[in-house]
Each structure stands twice: as structure tokens, then as C-alpha cells.
Amino acid sequence: MSTGSNISYLRRQKKLTQEQFADMMKVTRQTVSRWESDEVTPELAKLTEICNVFSCKLDELVREDMSARGEIYSEVTIRKLPAFRMARYVMISPEPERDVQEYMKNWGIRSGLLAAHPDAKLIGWDFPHVTQEQQVRFGLHGYEAAYVLPEGFRTDLDGVTYCSNSEAKYAVITVTEPFIQPFDRIPMGYKHIMEYLQTDVYERPSFGCLCSFEDEYDEDGVVYMDIYVHAGKE
User: Fold this and answer.
1) Most exposed of 16, 35, 136, 211 (fewest Cβ within 10 Å)?
2) Average of per-residue pLDDT across 86-94
3) CATH, residue 44
């Protein structure tokens, strides 16, 4: 994959015409066309500017096949989720995602949830309230997991916190095989959503909604992760 092909791919992903991109870069449309056909390679200053426009790294732009991202990430869509009840638990440990999911699966067995609803959805999200000392000195991180409780299911089994998530809109992206490169693919999924929402910060809802969460599942031997980021109540 050439640098020119990557520029063309990124421009089309942003739904920009060559004329619009040329205006942003303060060059002519013909120059953009020559870049994309690899007739001319942009000078370093322009390559850096292109990276800033498309929020990518220079090494990615000139060396990688960026169109392969389309095989990893779906388009971002907006979904309106109805309100739901959940049973949640948080853990702080060296591997909190694994630990808390094992804990919740055991709770799902003891509560009878998995016997009554084997496909009950188990979601999760990062738990941010971990001190710098815990992270740096002890290698600890936080993760929270929750079962979405099907309508009509009731249990008073302790060991979890019961709460509700209000109806709200979420921006959603699907990541294929997220754990092949978990520290690259998952954060990049969040980045794509934030670019779609045209923001670089999370706005925590004040009306009882999760700010973001992840849903992992397996289809025909392929692992997928749906990433949800809150996008408003209306």
C-alpha cells in the first residue's frame, strides 16, 4: 500500500472531495491528485499536516495499508438503547477484566441467571478510580463488569450492586478480533467514535447512564467487541 493510496483512503473516510482537502492543505486539487496517484510525495511538513488532519501517525501513513482498518472496524452508528437493569461488580487487580468477568460468571451461575438465560449479556468498562501509586507501584488497574438482567428475572443474591441504566443514545463501533492487538485495536475503536462525535473528551451523563461500555461476543469462531459511547439522551 502506497502513501498516496493511504491519503486517498483517509480523505474518502472523512467524506472529503479532493477540492475540499486541497483547501484544507492550502494546495491545488491537482496537487492532491498527484499525491494520491504517487506521482509526487508530499514534503515532510505536508505529511505532518496530513497526519494532524486525519489523526494518524506518520509511520502509519507512509508504511502501513490503512485501508485494512476497514476489515477491523465497522462504521460508527447511533443506537438508542432502552433502559435496563443490571448487576455489577468492580475489581482492582493486575488483570481486572479477566478477574471480574470470572467473578460475574460465577455469580451468574449461583443466582440462576445463566440457567434461565444462557445468553445473558455481560458488559464491562474501565474503572477509573485507581490511584497513581496503585498503578505504577503495584501494577493494579480497575475494571467493572455487569450482567444485563432480562426482564422478569429476579434475584436477591448478594455480592453485586443492582442498578439501572436509563434510556439513551450510544455511538457504537464493532471491532473484529480486538484481543489480537488489544492495546491498539480497542483504544483505536474509541478514537474512531470520538472522531465521529467530533470530540476528544467524554462527557459523563448526569442522569444515570453509563458513559461507555464494551460487549464481547463470538460468532462462528470470530471474536467481536461492540464499543458503546454515550451520545445523548434524546
Assistant:
1) 136
2) 97
3) 1.10.260.40
